[in-house]
Design brief:
Length: 357
């Protein structure tokens, strides 16, 4: 059997790595990279760090509006699928690469496997939410990370082909966190001591495109009680320039250290020794949980509700004082039960077992 795996953005590279390892033990995998993320430190470094096989086809789509980007991906993916004629297409998460891959495959009557199915923020203003809903209704196999996502699919009338297999990113952390401890020197390079700094990431359009929200988040990070390391996503850098917020980044007595985006091993190392992680990323919320680091989510909602219910994650909007207060509370975090929320880190093996049937 031949599978086409479609990836295009940082989170998808992380999710694809463990499944690619298991899939290639039995089957042929053809990797298509849409080019949604194309900078070396947002794309190529992940293939190197995680030993992902090089893409068999790079579509070079790049950035653009949602409509233009998705349309170009759809056209180019369709051409590849017609040429390769796979038995199934594997897609991950909720990006434009995800929805373009699902649409192209469905229109060609090729079965679709969606890894990370059933997630909902219930905020249709998020483009990712639209992508999730569309993709789940087009998929043949829906690999859900939790029983909550399985129940959500059922409320939408989707019960066939649904499997609760856990979260594929737990596999990635299990496989690569020990390697990060061995290889990464990012703490030495940045002059950081374990437990004495925060890590922050911001990239969601709801935060970057809203000038007031972005200003509040930056002010909160600059007022934190510990130094904050801030790997700056290209979208966020562009938004900061557009809103003329560059001077804000130097507030807070230099506590905010802005750096370029990191590869996966360096980012894991940075996260697993942080006192608190502040983020609007769904993937980093989960990585924080798997690494046992308290998390503050810089959004009003999350798809990963179980992490909030566990007490290890707290939802905080863009108000600077709320961000500072939450960070202080989480620094004094007293360890509470840390259950296995999303499987045991062997999700890739379960997915391959289902596909084998």
């Amino acid at each position: 059997m031949r599978f086409v795996t479609i990836v295009g953005a940082r989170p998808q590279f992380i999710k694809a790595a463990p499944l690619s390892i298991e899939l290639r033990k039995l089957y042929t995998e053809f990797i298509v990279h849409t080019g949604q993320h194309y900078d070396d430190n947002m794309s190529d470094v992940f293939f190197r760090d995680m030993n992902i096989p090089p893409p068999d086809r790079h579509l070079g789509v790049g950035s653009g509006s949602h409509g233009a980007q998705t349309a170009t991906m759809l056209e180019r993916i369709e051409q590849v699928l017609e040429e390769v004629r796979p038995d199934a297409v594997i897609i991950y998460g909720d990006t434009n690469s995800t929805v373009a891959g699902a649409l192209a495959a469905a229109k060609l009557h090729i079965p679709v496997a969606h890894v990370e199915a059933g997630l909902r923020s219930f905020d249709r203003r998020m483009p990712e939410e639209i992508n999730r809903v569309v993709v789940d209704h087009l998929s043949t196999w829906l690999f859900s990370p939790s029983q909550v996502s399985v129940r959500q699919l059922a409320t939408e009338g989707i019960t066939q082909g649904v499997y609760n297999v856990g979260d594929i990113m737990a596999d990635s952390v299990r496989l690569f966190a020990p390697l990060a401890r061995q290889r990464s020197v990012v703490l030495d390079r940045l002059g950081l001591n374990p437990g004495q700094y925060f890590v922050a990431t911001v990239h969601r359009a709801a935060n970057t495109d809203d000038a007031a929200r972005l200003a509040g988040i930056i002010k909160g990070l600059c007022s934190a009680s510990k130094p904050v390391v801030f790997p700056l996503h290209p979208r966020t850098r562009t938004a900061i320039q557009r809103h003329e917020y560059e001077t804000m980044l130097h507030g807070g007595d230099g506590r905010l250290t802005v750096i370029e985006p990191l590869g996966y091993l360096d980012m894991l190392q940075l996260q697993q020794h942080a006192a608190v992680i502040l983020t609007d990323s769904g993937g980093i919320q989960k990585e924080a949980y798997y690494l046992g680091v308290p998390c503050i989510t810089l959004r009003d909602e999350t798809e990963w509700v179980e992490t909030v219910e566990s007490g290890w994650n707290r939802l905080v909007g863009p108000d600077p004082q709320a961000i500072v207060s939450a960070a202080e509370d989480m620094v004094r975090f007293t360890e509470i039960p840390h259950p296995l929320l999303y499987g045991d880190g062997h999700t890739a093996e379960q997915i391959v077992k289902v596909l084998k049937k």
